[in-house]
């Protein structure tokens, strides 16, 4: 049997999730849009930086022990800048992004009634022709490995900030819930990261779409919601 070296997988060096697959159910009411969340200054700085960014992460595709791809770097090549790249090429953006996420933190904690910590900052460009097939943020969602961790199993809750809307296509869609929307400039969206909330991005037909994704790890659950299936939002 072919063996795969997983010793360098990102997942080996980070926090573990305390919420199992399906913990949040699959209600469309957990896909949240907050309009006009970003300030005019955040939009200006985010757009200026994202449109001029020309240095991106250099990562590797990762596999699990079965040889299944759990992170495909080819999809994100020359498109994603995380903390190290941002620090070198735009250190002024780190406090801007941090303020955005910390302003959102109590809103998400109050909504889900949990305690959370954020992952690091990132900016992603979506040039003409790019798209993303439906996926879950913290786990694989199809085939024999469905429900098992991907490279980021601590991505319990996803957040996406949108810096612009001067592009066509690029709609965000959720196949399970039957939702498709054109993200609004200055808005932020958040939702659970498991396979009940697979989501994708339609092909960008023209222009370039700029986003800042963040993810959250749940560190504490309230006692009355500790057992999956007994959640208030499933009743």
Describe this structure in words.
Helix content is 17%, strand content 26%. The chain has helices at 40-52, 83-89, 93-112, and strands spanning 32-34, 62-63, 69-71, 80-82, 115-118, 122-126, 132-135, 157-162, 168-169, 172-174, 179-181, 188-192, 199-201, 204-206, 209-220. Strand 2 and strand 3 (69-71) form a beta hairpin. It is globular and about 45 Å long.
Topology:
Elements: E1 32-34, H1 40-52, E2 62-63, E3 69-71, E4 80-82, H2 83-89, H3 93-112, E5 115-118, E6 122-126, E7 132-135, E8 157-162, E9 168-169, E10 172-174, E11 179-181, E12 188-192, E13 199-201, E14 204-206, E15 209-220
Antiparallel strand pairs: 1-12, 2-3, 4-6, 5-15, 6-15, 7-13, 8-12, 8-15, 9-14, 10-11, 10-13
Helix pairs in contact: 1-3
């Amino acid at each position: 049997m072919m063996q795969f070296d997983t010793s360098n997988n990102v997942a080996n060096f980070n926090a573990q999730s305390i919420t199992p697959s399906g913990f949040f159910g699959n209600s469309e009411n957990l896909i949240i849009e907050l309009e006009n969340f970003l300030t005019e200054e955040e939009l200006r700085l985010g757009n200026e930086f994202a449109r001029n960014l020309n240095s991106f992460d250099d990562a590797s595709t990762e596999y699990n022990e079965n040889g299944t791809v759990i992170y495909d770097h080819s999809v994100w090549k020359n498109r994603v800048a995380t903390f190290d790249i941002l620090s070198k090429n735009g250190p002024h953006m780190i406090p801007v992004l941090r303020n955005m996420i910390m302003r959102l933190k109590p809103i998400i904690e109050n909504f889900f009634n949990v305690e959370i910590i954020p992952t690091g900052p990132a900016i992603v460009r979506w040039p003409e022709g790019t798209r993303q097939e439906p996926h879950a943020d913290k786990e694989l969602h199809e085939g024999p490995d469905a429900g098992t961790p991907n490279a980021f199993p601590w991505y319990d809750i996803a957040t996406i900030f949108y810096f612009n809307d001067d592009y066509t296509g690029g709609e965000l869609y959720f196949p399970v819930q039957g939702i498709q929307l054109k993200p609004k400039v200055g808005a932020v969206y958040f939702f659970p990261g498991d396979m009940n909330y697979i989501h994708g991005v339609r092909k960008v037909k023209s222009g370039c779409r700029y986003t800042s994704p963040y993810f959250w790890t749940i560190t504490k659950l309230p006692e009355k919601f500790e057992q999956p299936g007994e959640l208030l939002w499933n009743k």
